[in-house]
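residues and backbone:
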Amino acid sequence: MLDLPKQQGFPSLNNAYNAVFKSDRLRIGLILPVEAYPVGSAPTMAGHLEIAQLAERLGFSALWLRGVPFDVPSFGDAGQIFDPFAYLGALSAVTQTIALGTAGIVLRLRHPAHVAKAAASADVLSNGRLLLGNASGDRPEEYPALIMSYPERGARFRDGYVYIRDMSKAYPHHHGDHGTLSGNIDMLPKPVAGHIPMLITGGSQQSPDWVAQNGDGWITYPREAESQGRVIADYRSRVRSTSLPNKPVMQSLYIDLLAEPSAQPRPIHLVFRSGSDFLKRYLEEVRALGVNHVALNLRFNQAPIQDTLKRLAEDLLPAFTK
């Protein structure tokens, strides 16, 4: 195990950020749709709002949406089907406390003014429960449909990201590829806490220093322990070099939870199937590596989803809510 320094505390940003991200702690969320569906197929979204309410009652800390404008068959995953911002509005109306996050919105494919307005609206409607994860996009087929350049997505991501951040200010100023804000117009509503936490997914075609400097947190991918520990240590080292406060790290995790708690792990597409005992050990290991939040994806789960959520809540959540 890598010898990692004890984490410093995180800043206070909004209700979601403050509840989901705790230094030296790990919280567990869910990636929507919380539904099993085969590779290349679309989810049914049956009973999706009831599942979101169940997840909140059981104590999961966050629900995560993805910005997938098109179903790309070669990619094999259409996400939650619904537009993420329309869906955030629906979720904010049927839940009360669970954080609502995006992981992430492809900034190259949306004008940042629209993203900023939609995100602020979702944040206000949910009483400060929004976490805005952003990405540069990894499906080249989507770009020609919107007359966009795939190779330019990195530069456009940077400008769009800063534009969104500027829009939280009163009568903002910004000049860049997406347009000019001259201080004579404003965006309403403003985020509940004056600032929406903005997370960066992967590298998003940026330098590691830019990611450490500009994000309020980092969304990375599951890796074997030694590699994950190294990349997190590198990220936090870069954050410290900026003299900014410490920032959280989260990752996704595909699982297929087996009925027998002691069932040993077996590989599946992207990660593993196992009993809850091994899953708990895995989560304790990544917590020790510096991961603050894990978003579980049950797409490949074989047991009934509601039963799995209840077993996860009973077997795992008590260890990760302290």
Summary: Residues 225-241 form the longest helix (17 residues).
